[in-house]
Specification:
The protein is α/β, with parallel strands linked by helices and 285 residues long. It has three domains: 60 residues, Multidrug-efflux Transporter Regulator, Chain: A, Domain 2 (Orthogonal Bundle), CATH 1.10.1660.10; 80 residues, Methionine synthase domain (Methyltransferase, Methionine Synthase (B12-binding Domains), Chain A, domain 1, Orthogonal Bundle), CATH 1.10.1240.10; 119 residues, Rossmann fold, CATH 3.40.50. The chain is built from twelve helices and eight strands. The strands form two sheets. The chain has a five-stranded parallel sheet, with helices on both faces. The chain has a three-stranded antiparallel sheet with strand order 1-3-2. β2 and β3 form a beta hairpin. α4 packs antiparallel against α5, α6 packs antiparallel against α7 and α8 packs parallel to α12. The longest helix has 21 residues. It starts with a strand and ends with a helix. It binds cobalamin. Cobalamin binds next to α6, α7, α8, β6 and β7.
Length: 285
Protein backbone atom coordinates (compact mmCIF):
# COMPACT_ATOMS: atom_id res chain seq x y z
CA UNK A 1 0.00 0.00 0.00
CA UNK A 2 1.47 3.35 -1.10
CA UNK A 3 1.86 6.08 1.52
CA UNK A 4 0.53 8.61 -1.06
CA UNK A 5 -2.93 8.48 -2.59
CA UNK A 6 -4.67 10.23 -5.46
CA UNK A 7 -7.73 12.38 -4.64
CA UNK A 8 -9.81 9.78 -6.53
CA UNK A 9 -8.63 6.96 -4.22
CA UNK A 10 -9.26 9.02 -1.08
CA UNK A 11 -12.68 10.11 -2.34
CA UNK A 12 -13.61 6.49 -3.06
CA UNK A 13 -12.45 5.30 0.34
CA UNK A 14 -14.38 7.99 2.25
CA UNK A 15 -17.43 7.94 0.01
CA UNK A 16 -17.39 11.55 -1.26
CA UNK A 17 -16.96 12.94 -4.77
CA UNK A 18 -13.52 13.57 -6.18
CA UNK A 19 -14.30 17.26 -6.66
CA UNK A 20 -15.33 17.64 -2.97
CA UNK A 21 -12.13 15.91 -1.98
CA UNK A 22 -10.04 18.31 -4.08
CA UNK A 23 -11.86 21.23 -2.45
CA UNK A 24 -11.05 19.81 1.02
CA UNK A 25 -7.39 19.73 -0.01
CA UNK A 26 -7.47 23.30 -1.25
CA UNK A 27 -9.23 24.50 1.95
CA UNK A 28 -6.55 22.82 4.09
CA UNK A 29 -8.89 20.15 5.51
CA UNK A 30 -6.52 17.46 4.23
CA UNK A 31 -2.78 17.82 3.69
CA UNK A 32 -1.46 17.22 0.17
CA UNK A 33 1.55 17.66 -2.09
CA UNK A 34 1.74 18.04 -5.84
CA UNK A 35 3.53 15.70 -8.23
CA UNK A 36 6.00 17.26 -10.71
CA UNK A 37 3.06 17.16 -13.19
CA UNK A 38 0.89 19.24 -10.80
CA UNK A 39 -1.44 16.45 -9.56
CA UNK A 40 -2.49 16.42 -5.91
CA UNK A 41 -1.27 13.53 -3.74
CA UNK A 42 -2.65 13.01 -0.24
CA UNK A 43 -0.50 11.29 2.43
CA UNK A 44 -2.11 8.17 3.90
CA UNK A 45 -1.33 9.27 7.48
CA UNK A 46 -3.13 12.59 6.82
CA UNK A 47 -6.26 10.74 5.69
CA UNK A 48 -6.10 8.41 8.71
CA UNK A 49 -5.68 11.32 11.16
CA UNK A 50 -8.61 13.11 9.56
CA UNK A 51 -10.89 10.05 9.77
CA UNK A 52 -9.90 9.41 13.40
CA UNK A 53 -10.43 13.02 14.44
CA UNK A 54 -13.80 13.29 12.69
CA UNK A 55 -14.80 9.77 13.84
CA UNK A 56 -15.69 8.97 10.23
CA UNK A 57 -16.07 5.41 9.02
CA UNK A 58 -14.43 4.88 5.63
CA UNK A 59 -16.99 3.38 3.24
CA UNK A 60 -14.26 1.43 1.39
CA UNK A 61 -11.51 0.83 3.98
CA UNK A 62 -9.66 -1.57 1.68
CA UNK A 63 -8.75 1.33 -0.63
CA UNK A 64 -6.68 2.71 2.29
CA UNK A 65 -5.23 -0.74 3.00
CA UNK A 66 -7.41 -1.04 6.12
CA UNK A 67 -9.13 -4.32 7.05
CA UNK A 68 -12.57 -4.93 5.60
CA UNK A 69 -14.88 -5.17 8.57
CA UNK A 70 -16.95 -8.22 7.87
CA UNK A 71 -16.41 -9.56 11.40
CA UNK A 72 -17.75 -8.53 14.82
CA UNK A 73 -16.72 -4.99 15.65
CA UNK A 74 -16.22 -3.49 19.09
CA UNK A 75 -16.50 0.08 20.34
CA UNK A 76 -14.28 -0.14 23.43
CA UNK A 77 -11.13 -2.10 24.29
CA UNK A 78 -12.84 -3.86 27.23
CA UNK A 79 -15.51 -5.35 24.96
CA UNK A 80 -12.86 -6.60 22.54
CA UNK A 81 -10.72 -8.43 25.11
CA UNK A 82 -12.28 -11.94 24.89
CA UNK A 83 -12.45 -11.78 21.08
CA UNK A 84 -8.86 -10.62 20.76
CA UNK A 85 -7.69 -13.28 23.23
CA UNK A 86 -9.32 -15.88 21.03
CA UNK A 87 -7.81 -14.54 17.80
CA UNK A 88 -4.30 -14.00 19.15
CA UNK A 89 -4.05 -17.34 20.91
CA UNK A 90 -5.09 -19.13 17.72
CA UNK A 91 -2.57 -17.12 15.66
CA UNK A 92 -5.31 -15.41 13.65
CA UNK A 93 -3.48 -12.36 12.28
CA UNK A 94 -6.34 -11.07 10.11
CA UNK A 95 -8.86 -11.32 12.98
CA UNK A 96 -6.49 -9.61 15.46
CA UNK A 97 -5.66 -6.92 12.91
CA UNK A 98 -9.34 -6.22 12.24
CA UNK A 99 -10.10 -5.74 15.94
CA UNK A 100 -7.07 -3.59 16.76
CA UNK A 101 -7.00 -1.43 13.60
CA UNK A 102 -10.76 -0.90 13.84
CA UNK A 103 -10.50 0.34 17.44
CA UNK A 104 -7.57 2.57 16.43
CA UNK A 105 -9.68 4.07 13.63
CA UNK A 106 -12.45 4.72 16.18
CA UNK A 107 -9.97 6.92 18.04
CA UNK A 108 -8.66 4.47 20.68
CA UNK A 109 -5.06 5.43 21.40
CA UNK A 110 -2.04 3.14 21.04
CA UNK A 111 -1.53 3.50 24.81
CA UNK A 112 -5.01 2.08 25.45
CA UNK A 113 -4.61 -0.68 22.87
CA UNK A 114 -1.38 -1.66 24.66
CA UNK A 115 -2.50 -1.29 28.28
CA UNK A 116 -6.04 -2.58 27.90
CA UNK A 117 -5.67 -5.21 25.20
CA UNK A 118 -2.21 -6.43 24.20
CA UNK A 119 -0.80 -6.57 27.73
CA UNK A 120 -3.76 -8.45 29.27
CA UNK A 121 -3.94 -10.85 26.31
CA UNK A 122 -0.21 -11.66 26.45
CA UNK A 123 -0.33 -11.90 30.26
CA UNK A 124 -3.15 -14.44 30.00
CA UNK A 125 -1.29 -16.41 27.33
CA UNK A 126 1.79 -16.38 29.62
CA UNK A 127 -0.33 -17.72 32.49
CA UNK A 128 -1.72 -20.48 30.30
CA UNK A 129 1.83 -21.39 29.28
CA UNK A 130 2.92 -21.48 32.95
CA UNK A 131 -0.04 -23.78 33.74
CA UNK A 132 0.91 -26.08 30.86
CA UNK A 133 -2.26 -25.22 28.91
CA UNK A 134 -0.50 -23.42 26.06
CA UNK A 135 2.45 -24.52 23.96
CA UNK A 136 5.55 -22.34 23.63
CA UNK A 137 4.90 -22.05 19.90
CA UNK A 138 1.45 -20.59 20.59
CA UNK A 139 2.95 -17.91 22.82
CA UNK A 140 5.61 -17.05 20.21
CA UNK A 141 2.95 -16.97 17.50
CA UNK A 142 0.83 -14.52 19.54
CA UNK A 143 3.87 -12.23 19.94
CA UNK A 144 4.40 -12.44 16.16
CA UNK A 145 0.78 -11.43 15.56
CA UNK A 146 1.10 -8.50 18.01
CA UNK A 147 4.29 -7.26 16.33
CA UNK A 148 2.79 -7.49 12.82
CA UNK A 149 -0.29 -5.51 13.84
CA UNK A 150 1.88 -2.91 15.59
CA UNK A 151 3.95 -2.53 12.40
CA UNK A 152 0.72 -1.88 10.54
CA UNK A 153 -0.39 0.72 13.10
CA UNK A 154 3.05 2.33 12.82
CA UNK A 155 2.36 2.95 9.12
CA UNK A 156 -0.94 4.68 9.98
CA UNK A 157 0.50 7.08 12.56
CA UNK A 158 1.37 10.64 11.57
CA UNK A 159 4.94 11.20 10.51
CA UNK A 160 6.80 13.47 12.93
CA UNK A 161 6.80 17.16 12.04
CA UNK A 162 9.96 19.24 11.64
CA UNK A 163 11.31 20.07 15.08
CA UNK A 164 9.42 17.24 16.83
CA UNK A 165 10.90 16.15 20.15
CA UNK A 166 13.14 13.12 19.81
CA UNK A 167 13.02 9.96 21.92
CA UNK A 168 14.93 6.68 21.74
CA UNK A 169 14.97 3.62 23.94
CA UNK A 170 14.93 -0.12 24.10
CA UNK A 171 15.44 -3.08 26.41
CA UNK A 172 18.55 -3.91 28.41
CA UNK A 173 21.12 -6.62 27.78
CA UNK A 174 19.63 -10.09 28.39
CA UNK A 175 16.08 -8.80 27.89
CA UNK A 176 14.63 -10.24 24.67
CA UNK A 177 11.15 -8.72 25.03
CA UNK A 178 10.07 -6.69 22.01
CA UNK A 179 6.36 -5.78 22.30
CA UNK A 180 6.55 -3.24 25.15
CA UNK A 181 9.43 -1.20 23.71
CA UNK A 182 7.66 -1.01 20.35
CA UNK A 183 4.46 0.11 22.11
CA UNK A 184 6.42 2.88 23.85
CA UNK A 185 7.73 4.05 20.47
CA UNK A 186 4.24 4.12 18.95
CA UNK A 187 2.70 5.82 22.01
CA UNK A 188 5.24 8.63 21.71
CA UNK A 189 4.81 8.87 17.95
CA UNK A 190 1.07 9.22 18.38
CA UNK A 191 1.79 12.18 20.67
CA UNK A 192 3.85 13.84 17.94
CA UNK A 193 7.31 12.73 19.01
CA UNK A 194 9.98 11.46 16.67
CA UNK A 195 10.50 8.19 18.55
CA UNK A 196 12.57 5.16 17.63
CA UNK A 197 12.95 1.94 19.53
CA UNK A 198 16.53 0.73 19.20
CA UNK A 199 15.24 -2.80 19.84
CA UNK A 200 15.97 -5.42 22.48
CA UNK A 201 18.99 -6.81 24.34
CA UNK A 202 21.09 -3.62 24.30
CA UNK A 203 24.20 -3.31 26.47
CA UNK A 204 24.38 -0.02 28.44
CA UNK A 205 27.51 1.26 26.60
CA UNK A 206 25.77 1.11 23.23
CA UNK A 207 22.69 2.87 24.65
CA UNK A 208 24.93 5.60 25.98
CA UNK A 209 26.53 5.94 22.57
CA UNK A 210 23.05 6.22 21.01
CA UNK A 211 22.12 8.94 23.51
CA UNK A 212 25.30 10.87 22.62
CA UNK A 213 24.78 10.44 18.86
CA UNK A 214 21.05 11.24 18.77
CA UNK A 215 20.82 13.64 21.74
CA UNK A 216 17.14 12.84 22.42
CA UNK A 217 14.88 14.73 24.83
CA UNK A 218 13.80 11.38 26.31
CA UNK A 219 15.47 7.99 26.68
CA UNK A 220 13.26 5.06 27.72
CA UNK A 221 14.11 1.67 29.10
CA UNK A 222 11.60 -1.17 29.08
CA UNK A 223 12.71 -3.63 31.74
CA UNK A 224 11.17 -7.13 31.64
CA UNK A 225 14.13 -9.34 32.52
CA UNK A 226 16.99 -8.65 34.93
CA UNK A 227 19.72 -11.24 35.28
CA UNK A 228 21.58 -9.83 38.31
CA UNK A 229 19.69 -7.17 40.23
CA UNK A 230 22.69 -5.61 42.06
CA UNK A 231 24.74 -5.38 38.89
CA UNK A 232 21.73 -3.93 37.09
CA UNK A 233 21.10 -1.26 39.74
CA UNK A 234 24.76 -0.15 39.54
CA UNK A 235 24.73 -0.09 35.72
CA UNK A 236 21.44 1.81 35.52
CA UNK A 237 22.57 4.46 38.00
CA UNK A 238 25.85 4.85 36.13
CA UNK A 239 23.93 5.19 32.85
CA UNK A 240 21.66 7.84 34.38
CA UNK A 241 24.62 9.90 35.61
CA UNK A 242 26.41 9.58 32.25
CA UNK A 243 23.35 10.83 30.33
CA UNK A 244 23.30 14.53 29.46
CA UNK A 245 21.11 16.36 32.04
CA UNK A 246 18.80 17.53 29.24
CA UNK A 247 17.72 13.91 28.59
CA UNK A 248 14.79 12.57 30.62
CA UNK A 249 15.31 8.92 31.53
CA UNK A 250 11.98 7.09 31.68
CA UNK A 251 11.76 3.53 32.91
CA UNK A 252 8.96 1.00 32.95
CA UNK A 253 8.27 -2.69 32.57
CA UNK A 254 7.35 -5.82 34.51
CA UNK A 255 10.57 -5.84 36.58
CA UNK A 256 10.15 -2.32 37.89
CA UNK A 257 8.95 -2.80 41.46
CA UNK A 258 9.16 -0.67 44.62
CA UNK A 259 12.59 -2.02 45.54
CA UNK A 260 14.01 -1.11 42.13
CA UNK A 261 12.37 2.31 42.23
CA UNK A 262 14.00 3.05 45.59
CA UNK A 263 17.45 1.98 44.47
CA UNK A 264 17.62 3.63 41.06
CA UNK A 265 17.64 7.14 39.61
CA UNK A 266 15.41 8.20 36.73
CA UNK A 267 13.28 11.15 35.61
CA UNK A 268 10.04 9.16 35.55
CA UNK A 269 8.95 5.63 36.26
CA UNK A 270 5.72 4.50 34.63
CA UNK A 271 3.48 1.51 35.30
CA UNK A 272 1.90 1.69 31.90
CA UNK A 273 1.65 3.60 28.64
CA UNK A 274 -1.12 5.88 29.89
CA UNK A 275 1.25 7.16 32.59
CA UNK A 276 3.91 7.71 29.95
CA UNK A 277 1.42 9.69 27.86
CA UNK A 278 0.58 11.87 30.87
CA UNK A 279 4.25 12.39 31.71
CA UNK A 280 5.25 13.47 28.19
CA UNK A 281 2.23 15.73 27.92
CA UNK A 282 3.41 17.42 31.13
CA UNK A 283 6.95 17.96 29.82
CA UNK A 284 5.59 19.10 26.46
CA UNK A 285 3.59 21.92 28.03
C1 LIG B 1 6.14 -13.29 25.11
C2 LIG B 1 6.89 -13.70 26.34
C3 LIG B 1 8.21 -14.14 26.21
C4 LIG B 1 9.00 -14.06 24.90
C5 LIG B 1 9.13 -12.60 24.39
C6 LIG B 1 9.34 -12.61 22.88
C7 LIG B 1 9.45 -11.25 22.34
N1 LIG B 1 10.04 -11.16 21.17
O1 LIG B 1 9.01 -10.25 22.88
C8 LIG B 1 10.37 -14.69 25.26
C9 LIG B 1 10.66 -15.85 24.35
C10 LIG B 1 11.60 -13.76 25.23
C11 LIG B 1 10.16 -15.09 26.70
C12 LIG B 1 11.13 -15.74 27.41
C13 LIG B 1 11.02 -16.14 28.71
N2 LIG B 1 9.94 -15.96 29.51
CO1 LIG B 1 8.44 -14.90 29.02
N3 LIG B 1 6.78 -14.12 28.68
C14 LIG B 1 6.25 -13.65 27.60
C15 LIG B 1 4.83 -13.13 27.91
C16 LIG B 1 3.82 -14.20 27.50
C17 LIG B 1 4.42 -11.82 27.27
C18 LIG B 1 5.37 -10.64 27.52
C19 LIG B 1 4.89 -9.42 26.79
O2 LIG B 1 5.40 -9.06 25.74
N4 LIG B 1 3.85 -8.77 27.32
C20 LIG B 1 3.23 -7.58 26.68
C21 LIG B 1 3.89 -6.30 27.16
C22 LIG B 1 3.36 -5.11 26.37
O3 LIG B 1 3.53 -6.13 28.52
P1 LIG B 1 4.54 -5.54 29.58
O4 LIG B 1 5.92 -5.92 29.27
O5 LIG B 1 4.02 -5.80 30.93
O6 LIG B 1 4.45 -3.96 29.28
C23 LIG B 1 3.44 -3.14 29.79
C24 LIG B 1 3.86 -2.41 31.06
O7 LIG B 1 4.74 -3.16 31.84
C25 LIG B 1 4.45 -1.13 30.58
N5 LIG B 1 5.82 -1.04 30.15
C26 LIG B 1 6.70 -1.98 29.79
N6 LIG B 1 7.87 -1.44 29.47
C27 LIG B 1 7.75 -0.12 29.60
C28 LIG B 1 8.67 0.91 29.37
C29 LIG B 1 8.27 2.23 29.56
C30 LIG B 1 9.23 3.34 29.32
C31 LIG B 1 6.93 2.50 29.97
C32 LIG B 1 6.51 3.87 30.14
C33 LIG B 1 6.02 1.46 30.22
C34 LIG B 1 6.44 0.16 30.02
O8 LIG B 1 3.63 -0.82 29.49
C35 LIG B 1 3.25 -2.01 28.79
C36 LIG B 1 1.85 -1.84 28.29
O9 LIG B 1 0.90 -1.82 29.32
C37 LIG B 1 4.94 -12.96 29.47
C38 LIG B 1 3.62 -12.92 30.21
C39 LIG B 1 3.48 -11.62 31.01
N7 LIG B 1 2.86 -11.67 32.14
O10 LIG B 1 3.97 -10.58 30.65
C40 LIG B 1 5.87 -14.13 29.81
C41 LIG B 1 6.66 -14.10 31.12
C42 LIG B 1 7.16 -12.71 31.40
N8 LIG B 1 7.80 -14.96 30.80
C43 LIG B 1 8.15 -15.74 31.78
C44 LIG B 1 9.20 -16.67 31.73
C45 LIG B 1 9.31 -17.63 32.91
C46 LIG B 1 10.10 -16.69 30.66
C47 LIG B 1 11.36 -17.55 30.53
C48 LIG B 1 12.21 -17.63 31.80
C49 LIG B 1 10.91 -18.91 30.03
C50 LIG B 1 12.02 -19.95 29.86
N9 LIG B 1 12.00 -20.89 30.76
O11 LIG B 1 12.79 -19.86 28.95
C51 LIG B 1 12.12 -16.82 29.42
C52 LIG B 1 13.10 -15.74 29.95
C53 LIG B 1 14.10 -15.41 28.86
C54 LIG B 1 14.83 -14.14 29.10
N10 LIG B 1 16.11 -14.23 29.37
O12 LIG B 1 14.27 -13.06 29.03
C55 LIG B 1 7.29 -15.52 33.00
C56 LIG B 1 8.04 -14.69 34.06
C57 LIG B 1 7.74 -15.20 35.44
C58 LIG B 1 8.47 -14.38 36.48
N11 LIG B 1 8.06 -14.53 37.67
O13 LIG B 1 9.34 -13.60 36.21
C59 LIG B 1 6.02 -14.81 32.38
C60 LIG B 1 5.32 -13.82 33.33
C61 LIG B 1 5.05 -15.93 31.97
C62 LIG B 1 4.41 -16.62 33.17
N12 LIG B 1 3.16 -16.31 33.46
O14 LIG B 1 5.03 -17.40 33.81
N13 LIG B 1 8.97 -14.72 27.19
Amino acid sequence: MSQWLSPKQVAESIGVSESSLKRWCDRGVLPFSRTPGGHRRVPLDGVISYLREQKLDPTRPEVLGLPNRSQVIYSHPAEALPGLMNKMSSGDFEGSRTILVDLFMKGVTIADLGDQLLTPVLTQIGEQWADGDTEIYEERRAVGVAMRVLHELSRLLPRPQEGARVAVGGTIEGDQYSVATFLVELTLRELGWSANSLGSNLPFPTMLQAAQDVNPRLFWLSISQIEDIDRFVGALNQFQSDLAPSIALVIGGRCVNDDLRKRTRFSACCDDLQQLARYVTSIDS
